[in-house]
Write a structure and sequence with these properties.
There is one protein chain. This protein has 2 domains: about 120 residues, 2-Layer Sandwich (Alpha-Beta Plaits); about 250 residues, TIM Barrel (Alpha-Beta Barrel). Helices cover about 45% and strands about 20% of the residues. It binds ligand C2E and calcium ion (CA) (3 copies). Ligand C2E binds next to strand 9, helix 7 and strand 13.
Length: about 375
């Protein structure tokens, strides 16, 4: 079992006590180190249906750690990630069985934690590839293999480009150009996301200044900020240090946050947003409509712009329901004087529908794909 969020011996001790209390005393429990435990279930307890028995044990453990508990007056939230291997199916030696359980555990972590998986031979490759990515990524950051592409946003009333979104790619010497979906989730799990987002922000600050001097900057450059970073207590401080370091101007940058970022303590979120806005940044709510309590966030926080998620625009010309939802979002944004951008606009019909509905900012392949800087400059000259 791996317990997320908090370390500390006191906590581990409590976890061990609770595991002991919930488990059949004939099972063997050992601490592996860190927040990981190993549990040995003897075959004779399982009867003729080991899977059934294992699932019951797993369910008992998950249930035990489901609820928030209190440690030194602080509320502790835990997730349990569990990997299972079975003798003799997955090995006959202890180290083989441990390795398989660990592979299954890694799979649980990669796919979002708080769950349990029994080892499967198909897991081997995928997991080791994920782990390779993880170690290559560390090198990628110091070797400057991360490149930033820029996707222009078009204003249908002004007939001009009104901003850009910075989107990271990994130019790997062995893998080629890797899209962010393949490494951002991994970077979010191992903490590299901090360096990654700050690298992209630094690039955006530098490019904004360069482009401004060349007279090609239109609007702001938007930078994606992982909720993991935004929720760090020192996020604003870190941003401000970076801005000073590169002598950047926040007035040319927009920070894109997702609704997950809004979920931790309304007071802190609203304080951070206000501080960032005071520095000159504008704030956009990304993937709008996909999280829950979207409306609440608009009322609670000082947000400048919402970005309608591509899942709504994708079939807007085909689906009445998607059209209705999109229309409500646009009206709401307009009523609150919040700017609204539609993402993933691929054809003229979609652009027309959105324009008629009152959404004038469009981002998508119809305007342009995300481009490396040199190509972007050619695009802007056209
Ligand atoms: P996102 O922030 O929602 O970015 C929009 C994604 O939609 C981009 O994918 C973009 O290339 C893609 N896209 C734009 N127009 C179209 C279109 O017309 N059709 C289709 N099918 N797709 C379109 P990309 O670049 O692969 O990025 C994926 C996600 O990775 C981003 O989604 C964002 O969540 C994340 N990401 C990218 N760069 C960064 C970064 O620097 N930091 C963080 N934390 N996340 C990033
Ligand atoms: Ca752990
Ligand atoms: Ca975005
Ligand atoms: Ca988005």
């Amino acid at each position: 079992t791996s317990i997320g969020l908090l370390q500390g011996d006191k906590l581990i001790k409590q976890v061990a006590d609770r595991l002991t209390a919930v488990l059949d005393p004939s099972l063997t429990l050992a601490r592996l180190g860190g927040d990981e435990f190993a549990l040995l279930i003897p075959g004779h307890l399982c009867g003729n249906n080991p899977i059934f028995y294992i699932k019951r044990v797993v369910a008992d453990i998950q249930q035990e750690f489901e609820s928030v508990f209190v440690l030194d007056d602080a509320e502790v939230n835990m997730t349990t990630s569990i990997g299972v291997s079975i003798f003799p199916n997955h090995g006959t030696k202890a180290d083989q069985l441990m390795r398989c359980a660990d592979t299954a555990l890694n799979r649980v972590k990669i796919s979002g934690r708080n769950s349990a998986l029994i080892f499967d031979h198909l897991m081997d490759d995928i997991t080791s590839d994920q782990l390779n990515i993880e170690s290559e990524l560390v090198a990628a950051i110091s070797n400057r293999e991360l490149v930033v592409f820029y996707q222009p946003v078009y204003h249908t009333q002004h007939h001009s480009i009104s901003g850009f979104e910075a989107l990271v790619r990994w130019q790997s010497p062995v893998r080629g150009l890797v899209p962010p979906d393949q490494f951002i989730p991994i970077a979010e799990q191992n903490g590299l996301i901090r360096q990654l987002d700050f690298y992209v922000l630094e690039q955006a600050l530098i490019k904004a200044e360069e482009w401004r001097q060349q007279g090609v900057l239109k609007g702001r450059i938007a930078v994606n900020i992982s909720s993991i970073n935004f929720q760090q207590a020192d996020f604003v401080e870190q941003v401000s240090q970076l801005v000073n370091k590169v002598n950047g101007d926040c007035n040319f940058i927009e920070l894109e946050l997702t609704e997950t970022a809004m979920m931790k303590g309304a007071d802190l979120v609203s304080k951070n947003i206000d501080s960032l806005k005071n520095m000159g940044f504008s704030i956009a709510l990304d993937d709008f409509g996909t999280g829950y309590s979207s409306l609440l966030h608009l009322r609670q926080f000082n947000i400048d712009k919402v970005k309608i998620d591509r899942s709504f625009t994708k079939e807007i010309e085909l689906s009445t329901q998607d059209r209705n939802i999109t229309s409500v979002i646009i009206q709401l944004a307009n009523a609150l004087s919040i700017e609204v951008v539609a993402e993933g606009v691929e054809n003229e019909t979609q652009a027309y529908i959105l324009h008629v509905m009152g959404c004038f900012l469009l981002q998508g392949y119809l305007v342009s794909r995300p481009l490396p800087e040199a190509q972007l400059m050619m695009f802007l000259e056209k």
